[in-house]
Here is the input.
Amino acid sequence: EAQVTQNPRYLITVTGKKLTVTCSQNMNHEYMSWYRQDPGLGLRQIYYSMNVEVTDKGDVPEGYKVSRKEKRNFPLILESPSPNQTSLYFCASSPGTGSGQPQHFGDGTRLSIL
Amino acid sequence: GESVGLHLPTLSVQEGDNSIINCAYSNSASDYFIWYKQESGKGPQFIIDIRSNMDKRQGQRVTVLLNKTVKHLSLQIAATQPGDSAVYFCAEGGNTGKLIFGQGTTLQVKP
Here is the structure.
């Protein structure tokens, strides 16, 4: 089954404790992206990757890192999490960019930073 | 700046009626526009998209209309069913793959 898989689905942790949210897609997609979803602010892009070893900042990259060492994986790293990073996070992938290549989303990771 | 907005946060319709969800956008340079459906506890699910050089596109029970003159996008759902209850987002995109999402409209279908 074609899918985008995120882990963990839920995490409660404390300020400053490094964490990684993994994202994997099995569709051989070139494009991958991370979003955060907050009430009243909608979905905002954090980072994106057009291909292996190519990453770029989205609208809200501060406090996050990503890597794209292989095509299927695009982990999101919070080196020193803070409470304002408490949010619902989505990973997405698409074959490429542009019309006709819609992004497929994972089911989300809910992070709570205390 | 860029923004995509939906006119109403909540829309309530009777089962079997048609639904129309509206969206206004501000970036006239966007290449395409997309509608997503998000059910509780799940990620956004692609419904339909439309290129900027089109004004109408139809799918199964859904139609998207694009009016570039007034920068307006709408999603029409025919014969709305209880399973259509969800939050609907419009988004605009360009060749970088970046999507700019609107705030979302919650569609409630009354039996």
About this structure: The mean pLDDT of chain B is 90.
